[in-house]
Amino acid sequence: MSTPSEKYATFRSDQEHPAVKDFRALYDFELDEFQLRACAALEDGHQVLVAAPTGSGKTLVGEFAVHLALERGQKCFYTTPIKALSNQKYGDLVSRYGADKVGLLTGDNSVNSEAPIVVMTTEVLRNMLYAGSQTLLGLSYVVMDEVHYLADRSRGAVWEEVLIHLADSVSVVSLSATVSNAEEFGDWLETVRGNTVVVLEEKRPVPLFQHVMVGKRLHDLFAGEAPTARVGAPAKASKSGNPAKEVKADVRDLVNPQLVRIARDDNRIFRDDSRKPRRRRDLPKGRPARTHFTPYRSDVVEELDAGALLPAIFFIFSRKGCEDAVVQCLRSGLRLTKPSERDEIKRVVAERTADLPDEDLGVLGYHDFAEALSRGIAAHHAGMLAAFKEVVEELFARGLIKVVFATETLALGINMPARTVVLEKLSKWNGEAHVDITPGEYTQLTGRAGRRGIDVEGHAVVLWQPGFDPREVAGLASTRTYPLRSSFSPSYNMAVNLVRQVGRTRARDMLELSFAQFQSDQAVVGLARQVQRNTEALEGYKESIECHLGDFLEYAALRRRIGDREASGSKRRKLDRRVEAQESIEKLKTGDIIRIPAGRSAGWALVLDPGFRSEREGPRPTVLTLDRQVRKLSMVDFPTPVEAIGTLRIPRKFNPRNPQQRRELAQVLRTRTDLLGEDGPPSRSRGKDAVSHADDPELQEMRAELRAHPCHGCSDREDHARWAERYFRLDRENRDVQRKIEQRTNTIARQFDRVCQVLDALHYLDGDKTTEAGDRLARIYTELDLVAAECLRQGVFDDLTVPELAACLAALVYESRSKDEPTSPRLPRGDVREALERMGSIWRDLSALERDMRVDFLRSMDLNFCWPAFRWASGASLAEVLYESDLAAGDFVRWVKQLIDLTEQIADAAGDTPLRKTARSVVDQIRRGVISYASMVE
Q1: Residue 143 pLDDT
Q2: DSSP labels for 97-115?
Q3: What DSSP line would sit under 247-303, residue for residue?
Q4: Residue 808's pLDDT is what?
């Protein structure tokens, strides 16, 4: 029950923010304090950044922007990073406000695009800004959901482009996952967009308990309450950048001692010493056998079901692993649904897939997919058909699917909360190597656990693996380190669009507003402070150096030049001696008696084998010493040249491994060397070791100048000299820091200048204007935009047929997931090969130009999708194409849709030419069957 003071506070808030009051009335639950703060700031005219954990309800703030726009008769765009999220949000808003007030733009679909509320992907809004679309008129609010996507390497720049180029009159609502530098991001938004209120929420809406499953037993990760389960206690932020180490001492007493003991016993039995694991029969007698093991996937599901911990998302960082897990569960006889649930699942599946061509159902694995769903089990990954993923998402959200085996892509925004999240491993393949997941990734993945309003608590389960360290897992679970790092860099398409709109100078200034430059400049602030401190210290040193006889800094600089000259002379002489020593060793022959000047074997020795010269190490002679040891020498043993002072005949059958023969030969050697005395004859090279500095006239001139300097006679000369050395060292350090500042300042602008130099050289830009070729490039949004534009200009595509054009454009779209894909893929015959060769030549010329201009944007073309695209455009069935290409159905559909996007751009850029007709025919020919079905989803 509210107190009188709380009731009065609510009354005052309602008076000051009537729109928030009306919005609250739409919901049958109380809004959280952070939601109310953000909504109030938005009603007051501020822009807002909301950073909150997954499932905390931050999207409600975005929906308030929609409510405000409708109430005030204005327009609002709601942007999302992926089409699936756009579709989901479109459905939500239609349910609340009606289909007449909500539109959808995803590239594939345009539904009621002039509605007051339009949901779209971020790329669509970016393209609208560059095209100057009339749809932007009257725009007052833009919601940028999942704005932390700007850290994405391939797509992140789009978010910054939108935030920089949106009109100042537009209020932006930025919704982000919990990031550890939200304040920094908010400061940048303040700089770029104006008055921005940052609303941080670090409390999870549902407490999260952490567990480790060892075998079939579930253990608590922490002995007491998990840090993520404490009400009102945010996760701890890391300062060092190595959170696992930083929290180790803090969590040592918190980690479940039973887990620590299991890990210690496990490591003692099977130590990971980079050797192959020993077999059980190879273990020493009496040594205990391993009793702890990674549980089977089906066993994990059974245990979760028994413990009332379903529904669960089971993260496996492998598409094949997800599919295998479903098969394993089916083979184990798992059935997690009731008869009534199975009937509903079958109805939904039949309804949602009714439009799929019957002839494609077999190759799509429809029947196995439907059987698994009926048992409450499913997979979810990027290789699945979009329609299948949509069915899984709907059924899981309704509680009909009990366990989903998913890759990490499921954590990127799709609203699929669960009671439990399982992580099979704490490492994943990033395309190049197996790497440990970061604390930010762990937080993102486990953030799905705990359904607000349904579960009183969520659960995160990590499966036991060999070499498991519970302290490291505790570090991941209790550390908040998810810094937002900009991936922004100017592209060719971006450059021509900006120059065409605002000119080169203004475009350069706009790019300096990027978050990437802001972060770089923030680092410069610290360096600038260091320069300031160093400069002040240098002034203090100058005072200590002052000499009443003259300019001591000038005198000290002369002393340094003399020292440098002497040091370089010594290095030169040392090098000369090494060359001399090497030449003397190369002259040695078998049987020569020498005196080794240095090293462990210093003294008399007999050359058994002069050895062969090595480019890296020089000659390596083998010798017999007086103490009967056979040694292989190196240049380290010869700091000075060596000469043979005599020879000794070595018996033909001498075996250096025979101790008796070594003893006899060493005795003969001793007899011969006794006659020469301890040091032997004087070496002719000894007089050459030290070349007098008197031979250097420039050095003598500087010494004379030093003696003539007034400060040379100062009684405090050496004291002044010590301060001068400190001055010179600090001055050198200061110059190094200043160079770093110069390198970091204006980095984005300098990169933009180099991009413009490439475009100038190719005549896409003419001063502050774009050429006809530049206008074509402005319409092409792909990673290989410049290659596509050059192919257009040089007429590479002009005479191609529909299937041939599809094959060539596929080379500009596709990028292999694995380096294992064939480097010489199957290609169509005829004109396609000639066109691809011309495209390859264009790519090589552009890459050479990029090297000259010191930029690197154009990745290599990938020809592995040319044949599937050619066959699909030729009318081949889905089964034939998938069989011949070994592609997953979902991957094939996704790449064809990207091919459609590029082909439509090429048609637009081609103008009124026959190529436009061919390109549109390509789109018509490949948008069929499973491609045309459910295009709203993928």
Answers
A1: 94
A2: H-GGGEEEE-SS-EESTTS
A3: THHHHTTTB-HHHHHHHHHHHHHS--SSSPPPPGGGSPTTPPPP---PPPHHHHHHH
A4: 94
Q: For residue 464, give the nearest of 221, 268, 208, 209 by alpha carbon.
A: 221
DSSP 8-state assignment for residue 31: P
Residues 6+ apart with CB under 8 A from 100: 112, 115
Element holding 731 (H helix, E strand):
helix 717-744
Q: What is the 3-state secondary structure (H, E, C) of 380-399?
A: ECCCCCHHHHHHHHHHHHCC
Residue with tokens 């709601």: 78
Bond into 243 cis (ω within 30): no
Cα distance between residue 367 and residue 354, in whole Å: 13
Q: How far apart are CA 753 and CA 759, in angstroms?
A: 10
Q: Are 624 and 608 in contact (CB under 8 A)?
A: yes
Distance CA 385, CA 247 (A): 42
* Residues 6+ positions from 391 with CB-CB distance below 8 Å: 348, 349, 352, 353, 373
Alpha-carbon distance of 519 to 514, in angstroms, equals: 9
pLDDT tens-digit readout, 778-803: 999 888 999 999 999 999 999 899 99
Render 636-694 in DSSP notation, one character per residue: GG-SS-----EE-PPPTT--TT-HHHHHHHHHHHHHHHHTTTTT-SPPTTGGGSS--GG
Give me 148's structure tokens. Answer: 């932390």
Three-state secondary structure readout of 322-336: HHHHHHHHHHCCCCC
Backbone phi, psi, residue 416, to 5°: -135, 70
Pair type for strands 102-105 and 117-121: parallel
pTM, rounded to two decimals: 0.68
Q: Residues in the chain with pLDDT < 70?
A: 1-15, 107-109, 224-253, 267-292, 409-415, 429-433, 479-482, 525-526, 568-576, 612-617, 676-696, 742-743, 745-746, 818-823, 933-938
CA distance 631 to 228: 64
Paired residues of 208 in beta bridges: 458
User: What is the pLDDT, as a whole number, of residue 821?
Assistant: 57
Given this model, what pLDDT does residue 325 score? 92
> What is the gyration radius of the CA atoms in the chain, in angstroms?
37
For every residue of 787-815, DSSP letters joined together read HHHHHHHTTTTTT--HHHHHHHHHHHH--
Q: Which helix (H) or strand (E) holds 576?
A: helix 552-586
- pLDDT for 572: 66
Tokens at 201, concatenated: 């929420």
Closest CA to 893 of 389, 392, 407, 414: 389
- 329 with 368: CB under 8 angstroms? no
Burial class (CB in 10 A: 0-12, 13-18, 19+), 921: middle
Question: Residue 94 and residue 555: Cα distance in Å, rounded?
Answer: 82
Supply angle C-alpha 11, 15, 19, rounded to 5. 115
Pick the closest to residue 846 from 836, 832, 834, 856 (CA basis): 856
CB atoms within 10 A of CB 173: 29
Which one, of 521, 506, 502, 513, lies nearest residue 161 by Cα? 513
Please state whether beta strands 622-625 and 603-609 pair in parallel, antiparallel, or not at all (unpaired): antiparallel
Residue 678's pLDDT is 55
Query: String of b and e for 336-357 (b: at least 16 CB within 10 Å)?
Result: bbeeebbebbeebbeebbeebe
The pair of three-digit structure tokens given for residue 471, joined into one six-digit string: 């302290």
At residue 622, φ and ψ (nearest 5 deg) are: -100, 130
pLDDT of amino acid 686: 44
Distance CA 833, CA 840 (A): 10
564: amino acid identity, one letter: D
